[in-house]
Amino acid sequence: MSSISPDLHGDIKSGQSSFLLVPVSRIDLSNLKSSRNFWVYVNNKKPWPVCLAPEDKFNLQAGLLWHKIEKENKTIGLKAEVLSFIPAGREPVEIMQVKITNTSGRKISFIPTLAIPIYARSANNLRDHRHVTSLLNRITLHKFGVIVKPTLLFDESGHSPNKKLYFVLGWDEKSNPPRYIYPTQEIFCGEGGDLESPESILKNILPEKDPIQGKEAMGALRFRNITLRPGKSYSWCAVMGIGESQQEIKNAINKFKAKGRISEAFESTRKFWIKESSKISLFTANPDFDNWFRWVSIQPALRRQFGCSFLPDFDYGKGGRGWRDLWQDTLSLILSNPKGARLLLVNNFSGVRIDGSNATIIGKSAGEFISDRNNISRVWMDHGIWPLLTLDLYLNETADFGILFEQASYFRNHELCRSRSRDYNWQPSSGQGLRTASGKIYKGTILEHLLIENLVQFFNVGEHNHVRLEGADWNDGLDMAGQRGESIAFSCMYAYNLKLLAGLLKQTGKKEIKVAQELKTLLGRVDYDNREAKRGLLERYFTRIKYKVSGRKIELDINKLCQDLELKSEWMSGHIRKSEWLKEGFFNGYYDNSGRRVEGKKPNLMRMILTSQVFAVLSGVALPGQIEKIIKNTQKYLFDKKLKGYHLNSDFKEEQHTLGRAFSFAYGEKENGAFFSHMNVMFAYGLYKRGYAKEAWKVLKSISDMAINTSVSKIYPCIPEYFNLQGRGMYAYLTGSASWFVLTLIAQAFGVRGDNGNLLIEPKLLPSQFGDSLCLCIKRSFAGRAFEIKFFNPKKLGYPEYRIVKVSLNSCVLTQDSSRQAVILRRLILELPAARINTLEVTLG
To answer: What is the pTM of this model?
Structure first.
């Protein structure tokens, strides 16, 4: 995994404990001297550091997951092109190809030197035993460069033998190896130099045979002198990587060393990412938006690789993806490849605990979970929401209701009863599976997992009878209200999920289901208005499942179960409408750790949080009249007239130590009032879902407009986590908003989505989206077929004025009816065509 800035700063790593280059955060990109560099030494001229010289004429060309920089030094008379990419194959390498061209009118002779400092250790050692860990380095001089294999993974809680090989190799365009190698920074930089002014370059010093073991390693490769006539070029290649064996290094050399192999690898990589970005694509009246969307569509694939920690902006530290990331990244995978998502979904449920909480970090292997990135016992109260939302999309795309009855284990560690108590006898060697009284690993259906996640939260309430906030909800910054805090925002979603579960149960066609005997406690009847009674019931359940389960199962009547779920859902929705709709015209979404209502009018101040309104709208808790007032007030209190985006919250003007760290951030940054892409996209999704297409498109377009305005956003094409008050994109690429944007645009705006395995077409498009074009088009797969879906709007009508007057499949008319806004196409019909790309034409009128 590499991060590469336009001046070739950044890092290379395969995990938290294995960095080839020094780990960097945002500020390091401009502060650190450590970078990928290439030096050109011309006699009687100042040496030219190709990647560092700010005074050079500069140009950048970039595509999906590659870029090429061009630097020209007119004083010397040379131009450099540096191509960077990671090949789309199995080789664990980053490739850097440097091409030098003589732009003068005379011959120029020079000495080229590649200079890559090798860090070769864990990110934890950046300040923890930095020098001591360099003593572990065992450096090998290779014909083509430097290989470093530290003896240990240094960790005072328990050292372990290191198996990683870190390497920097290089050759010229004729496959010639370097003439000289500087294997340590001491040898390369000299006593008085550094990486930006190395004495070996400035004074043209050849490497001496100094001791090299136990030193800071360096991949500095000096190649033979080159003489270029005017207009002529010569190139060199660097292959940098982290491997597990000498054979991997040998394979990389054999694959990329021969003439033309780098060009082949680059072209293969370029085609790979173009294909990846074409799985879901669109063609509208705005080509800038369409091209930007191609980059957005690959972001979920990037987060599956990078987690939330491995780009300079993402300074979360320990690596891995979080629980929310796991489910939200799967949304876009379901749209492009639902069959491929099935096993992933089943494995994911093994991260759920029997108490309704879950592991929070996802390991590299399927079904591998970690309790918490920082070994802190805590629970996010929203985590039970996402699995059902993701599974619902899968069921609608496939009608594979059999997945509900697949068996999955439960996660188990030392944390019990939603982290309220500990099992001090539990050992990691015991395994992470919940066991029965007889010691066997217990498994339950996915349906059982879903019931537990959502039923537990119905009873897990605070003093205002809403679901407790616990460690935080979706907004990780609301993390200081663990005792008395409540999240009405996500109480709305638990109400939604309970109703959704009832609907899914009815669609299974079964009369009874088997569940763990202990689950019967959560179906007990108490006075729902009595919060103490609900808490008491939950404690009885926790007592029964605290350490293990019996292993016995009972049968539940589905009709009665559905009635129970629907009754709970209706009670929650009604309670929120009755107690949290404010006279100011929007919902209160939170109570703080003093039990105080967070939102509404305060002295000389209006406090409003977008999250509170989003989930009230999306869940159906907000009634139509309330939605209209919410739209009006978000426009009034959260919409930024200058940058044309929606703030996550209004400015509370003071820190909120009884609510969370977010309000200690500067206003307009991160979770304190930034233009937070994820919540903005979900706002758009909720508005589309409830029929407010014009308002929804305004929200979606605000995100793309801010991103595409690169002179202000200063980012490559993507959805960043947020935009700050200057409109700058922050925390690029690795954000769940990308999956939600794809889902919202395809399934809601274009209205092409699964409906119990059939294809529902319910577009909510506006005349402005058509522009001067009579046709909009999207490409996506469905039922194992590739479809190009074209929307014709000859009268330039907008939603909800138009109707679907005709639908054709490969020129064959399927339906003609001028009365419907939505059409369902049966899966059997769609599975018949065998064209490479099947064309669906939808005429609006």
So the answer is: 0.94
